[in-house]
Specification:
By secondary structure, the chain is α/β, with parallel strands linked by helices. It has a single domain, classed as Glycerol-3-phosphate (1)-acyltransferase. It is built from 11 helices and 8 strands.
Length: about 300
């Protein structure tokens, strides 16, 4: 409706709507959160519905201000009453809004493993805490050598979080690359993939070890920006010409549901092969989607 406005003005309007939307639903979340100490896990479905409403309202301002074309496939056969392990490539903070927009109310609320520093983000950090998003501390190699016991902190945090997730239908979100893709990171890693960084399997293995039988399937999400990866501001301005999302349900091999990833080298190699096969297929899919868009842009010879 507001797509006729200049991009900068649309970006300002979108940002204001995002802030107002966030403050409104977070205030409601903060009012109800103390009741968790009285009602326990029984309050979780209500808190999750509040977060779902926040995502839905974000989709509202996107439709109001953006010209972006959305090409989404693979989300029609999903269920909001099942558990899913969601895995996606990672290029921008925009990825989170893309996944929330396309998967909201099709699957349970996405729950992320977050860096511990993000708990200090104004307003939203407390909201993540109230919704039981796990905050993970990342320790440097020097620190780990001095105190090897620090390795167990994140494992225990993840196990406690997954134990909570197992009680209420949840979608556990994982960016296997561990960080956003950039050309510099790709070169530094000497990644064997054209459009992806090397995947990290530890978080996936730990999640499956704790709550593997709960998951209906792995949702492998591939995000492509044919016009170039947008910054968050460009996304708010609606200048990203197109967003492509492909979601594939994949069975999780039963032999990978439980295993000692840290100490069992045979299990770890088997897990790496499974993740590597997914990553190779994802890389080929990204290449095909980009080639398809490039051919469409060029038109017939």
């Amino acid at each position: 409706m507001l797509s006729f406005l200049p991009p900068t003005l649309r970006g300002v309007i979108a940002f204001i709507l995002l802030v107002v939307n966030t403050l409104f639903w977070c205030c409601l979340l903060f009012v109800l959160s103390p009741l968790k100490y009285l009602l326990g896990r029984r309050l979780d479905p209500l808190l999750n519905r509040i977060a779902t409403a926040w995502v839905a309202c974000n989709s509202g301002w996107m439709a109001l201000t953006q010209r972006t074309r959305w090409d989404v496939q693979g989300v029609d056969q999903l269920s909001g009453k099942d558990w899913y392990l969601v895995n996606a490539n990672h290029q921008s903070w925009v990825d989170i809004f893309v996944l929330q927009h396309c998967l909201n109310r099709r699957i349970p609320l996405l729950k992320f493993f977050l860096k511990h520093e993000l708990i200090y983000v104004p307003v939203i950090g407390l909201a993540w805490w109230a919704l039981d998003f796990p905050f993970m501390k990342r320790h440097g190699r020097t620190e780990l050598r001095r105190n090897p016991e620090l390795r167990n902190q994140d494992r225990e945090t993840a196990r406690q979080a997954c134990a909570k997730f197992a009680r209420t239908p949840t979608s556990v979100m994982n960016f296997a690359e561990g960080t956003r893709f950039t050309a510099d990171k790709h070169q530094t890693q000497a990644s064997p993939y054209r459009h992806l960084l090397k995947p990290k399997s530890g978080a996936l293995a730990m999640t499956l070890d704790v709550m593997g039988e709960s998951f209906r399937s792995l949702l492998d999400a591939t995000i492509v920006y044919p016009g170039g990866v947008p910054s968050f501001w460009q996304f708010l301005c609606g200048t990203a010409p197109e967003v492509v999302l492909r979601v594939q349900q994949q069975p999780i091999p039963p032999e990978l549901l439980h295993g000692n990833y840290e100490q069992d080298s045979a299990f770890r190699r088997q897990f790496h092969r499974w993740v590597a096969a997914i990553w190779e297929a994802k890389d080929q899919q990204i290449e095909a989607l980009l080639a398809e868009r490039a051919g469409t842009a060029q038109g017939p010879a």
